[in-house]
Amino acid sequence: MKRPHDDFPDTSRIATAKAILCDLDGCLICGDRVLPGIPAFIAQHRDRLWIVSNNSTDTPESLSLRLERLGIAVSAQRIILAGAETLRRLAHVEPAPAIALHAAPVMAAFAEGIGLRLTNANPDTVVLCRDTGMTYASLARALRQLQAGARLVVANPDTCHPSAEGDAVPETGALLAAIHAVLPDHPFESLGKPAPTLFDIALARAGLRASEAVMIGDNDATDGHGARALGIPFILVDPARGAAAIMERAATATERTSC
């Protein structure tokens, strides 16, 4: 069912919020394509903008560099990602778990850099990120590890995100679905949206309460549900147009009101 704010969202919150939390894919970029108007949007709101994303392919540092190459500048300190935060949380567990990590090489390097021990020999925990190199053999190995008693931690439950052409690109949740096709009742843990963790981290870094922020996202089930559960006002955007389009809608709404 279409929500009332789909056509003309209440963009007044953007002007008054002390922090703008924003999803990545479908809001700022699609694949390696920057959405129209985003450089100006970021330049206008840079001091209040925080990226809060279920991305589990990048670290904040690698994503910041990738965005810079695309012509938009966001500090790594203002980027909160599900994959990196999942690994950071595991790094603080005592005793430190032995982890079988399914992820991009940059994520494996990040995990080792924060002190995690990666192994495929009798791991305590199987960590699933968006692993574009996952094969039948690595899937079978993960299934064996889980059946041997390892717990399953998933960076995010998303099954897909939009590509630059607007097509659906498989996400971490698609790999989770493959595991559940064999082990349908196997439990898993995830701090990705709609769970509160990423939102809480962003608010803590900003030093603000939920009511002082606004969340912009293209997925009501993750961005919207998670934000509203914490009392953060939410603005839903069309993933084909992204976050900058809400400013156009606001202008249109103002013109209609003044007529």
TrEMBL record:
GO terms for cellular component: cytoplasm. Pfam families: Hydrolase. GO terms for molecular function: phosphatase activity. It comes from the Bacteria. This is 4-nitrophenyl phosphatase. The gene is nagD.
